[in-house]
Design goal:
Radius of gyration: 26 Å
Shape: rod-shaped
Structural class: mainly alpha
Order of helices and strands: HH
Number of strands: 0
Helix content: over 70%
Length: about 70
């Protein structure tokens, strides 16, 4: 299990004259990448669910057409 150390995280945002910008930049890039991954996964999930719904709808229409053909 990953433990979150708030003190180490908050030290990235306390400006010191001798500190570098790299940890702050890495944290910012990490949040941007996490947001993009969440966005892509959400879009992928919506695409999969809509494809399944369209497929079920087409299948039901085909069954309805076959029943129509049998009753004619």
């Amino acid at each position: 299990m990953i433990k979150f150390n708030y003190d180490a995280f908050s030290q990235n945002f306390t400006p010191h004259s001798h500190s570098t910008w790299i940890p702050v930049a890495k944290t910012g890039v990490g949040f941007i990448v996490a947001g993009l991954i969440i966005l892509l996964l959400k879009e992928l999930l919506v695409a999969v669910l809509s494809t399944i719904a369209i497929g079920i709808g087409i299948y039901i229409l085909l069954v309805a057409f076959r029943i129509y053909q049998l009753n004619r």
